[in-house]
Amino acid sequence: MYPLNNKLFTITANMEGWELFSNSLLPMITGAIQATIPLTLISFILGLVVALLTAMMRLSKSSLFRVPAAIYVSAVRGTPLLVQLFIIFYGLPSIGVTIDPFPSAVIAFTLNVGAYASEIIRASILSIPKGQWEAAFTIGMSKGTALRRIILPQAARVSVPPLSNSFISLVKDTSLASLILVAELFRKAQEIAARTYDFLLLYVEAAIIYWVICFILSLVQAALERRLDRFVAK
């Protein structure tokens, strides 16, 4: 009698687990579409703008530009992203600056991406042979024109793999935004788990969704790299 009861209990538990899994799938995907993906895209695009400006400042011969950029990069890379989020969302209100959760997350992720990506862009620019600069100057290009038309296009191809990795990492880092009440994918998992107390199943489900998104992005990255390889001299 007892083995039969145990078997029925296991079957019932499995059915309930599958029902919870399927019912929670849509809210999590909705959180990914409405918050995780937009947060990633907005932060990365703005971060690239910050990164390019920072890289140019760090490559400047003037310490007026180079030193502030170096301090910014060092400060961001030397502190945890979670701390940066908390400073912006929980810390700034103490001095009268209150920012909503989503903009707070965008600011934090943008500054974080900007610092790390600036080093990638700076290294990519420095990797271009000096002969490219000399050839540009020989045909009468200014430094700005040479940078825009000759150096940056080549540096962009070099920087695609590491920047793509940064983008994929940013997708996962957006889960930290749940701690400042942004209703992204992981926040949805936390809310459902708080009601059902089935933390393992829901957190594994969230991990699977993150994995699927990152796997798709890795395929896009591989295709982009293959396309860019066609323009590189062998």
UniProtKB/TrEMBL annotation:
<dbReference type="InterPro" id="IPR035906">
    <property type="entry name" value="MetI-like_sf"/>
</dbReference>
<keyword id="KW-0029">Amino-acid transport</keyword>
<feature type="transmembrane region" description="Helical">
    <location>
        <begin position="199"/>
        <end position="224"/>
    </location>
</feature>
<dbReference type="GO" id="GO:0043190">
    <property type="term" value="C:ATP-binding cassette (ABC) transporter complex"/>
</dbReference>
<dbReference type="InterPro" id="IPR043429">
    <property type="entry name" value="ArtM/GltK/GlnP/TcyL/YhdX-like"/>
</dbReference>
<keyword id="KW-0813">Transport</keyword>
<feature type="domain" description="ABC transmembrane type-1">
    <location>
        <begin position="33"/>
        <end position="221"/>
    </location>
</feature>
<keyword id="KW-0472">Membrane</keyword>
<keyword id="KW-1003">Cell membrane</keyword>
<feature type="transmembrane region" description="Helical">
    <location>
        <begin position="32"/>
        <end position="57"/>
    </location>
</feature>
<keyword id="KW-0812">Transmembrane</keyword>
<dbReference type="GO" id="GO:0015184">
    <property type="term" value="F:L-cystine transmembrane transporter activity"/>
</dbReference>
<comment type="similarity">
    <text>Belongs to the binding-protein-dependent transport system permease family.</text>
</comment>
<protein>
    <submittedName>
        <fullName>Amino acid ABC transporter permease</fullName>
    </submittedName>
</protein>
<keyword id="KW-1133">Transmembrane helix</keyword>
<dbReference type="InterPro" id="IPR000515">
    <property type="entry name" value="MetI-like"/>
</dbReference>
<dbReference type="Pfam" id="PF00528">
    <property type="entry name" value="BPD_transp_1"/>
</dbReference>
<feature type="transmembrane region" description="Helical">
    <location>
        <begin position="69"/>
        <end position="92"/>
    </location>
</feature>
<dbReference type="InterPro" id="IPR010065">
    <property type="entry name" value="AA_ABC_transptr_permease_3TM"/>
</dbReference>
